[in-house]
Sequence to fold (226 residues):
Amino acid sequence: QSVLTQPPSVSAAPGQKVTISCSGSSSNIGNNYVSWYQQLPGTAPKLLIYDNNKRPSGIPDRFSGSKSGTSATLGITGLQTGDEADYYCGTWDSSLSADVFGTGTKVTVL
Amino acid sequence: EVQLVESGGGLVQPGGSLRLSCTVSAFTFSSYWMHWVRQAPGKGLVWVSRINSDGSATTYADSVKGRFTISRDNAKNTVHLQMNSLRAEDTAVYYCASSYLSFDYWGQGTLVTVSS
Fold:
């Protein structure tokens, strides 16, 4: 149902790197800023990245964002057990006149 | 510390109504747009509605248009979501969120269950 597509899950060992893709279209990612959110189990989402690649105060530089065309990517380096969570991309969709979120990706630390 | 606290969730029968509230502290409420986002059990985030900083403009997802109404009281640092004609598919945790950079701060959520 979501207009932004993410892989259902990604995994890696502690200390390794994972990347999460977010695929959209010209009406959303292609012409608007992308944000990323982390949702730890049983908690509310938390802003990780805004304006494609900016980190709010307090977010470690292990988290990074990028955008190219109609896709965006979240990278997490130096993976920790505390990073196990669901991650969502989000942006504005000009055709829908609505904010939209991605389908979500579960990160597992092996 | 910024806090957003939702209230008003609960069990309601199909066709019924519920009014959610979100009270904000520790930032200049009247400067921020406010949103409601919901999450059905085991599912992803879905944006529901937003209201601009002075309450003069509102936007809704198609799935709730005509049934839900967002409003705010800047004197009381509170945003509301009036939900009418509720359906089973409206069952979810409802989060309020403020936006300046993006969806910057989120409340802890309030559960709405629509069931007979």
In short: The radius of gyration of chain B is 13 Å. Residues 8 and 20 of chain B are 5 Å apart (CA to CA). Chain B has a mean pLDDT of 96. The longest strand of chain B covers residues 18-25.
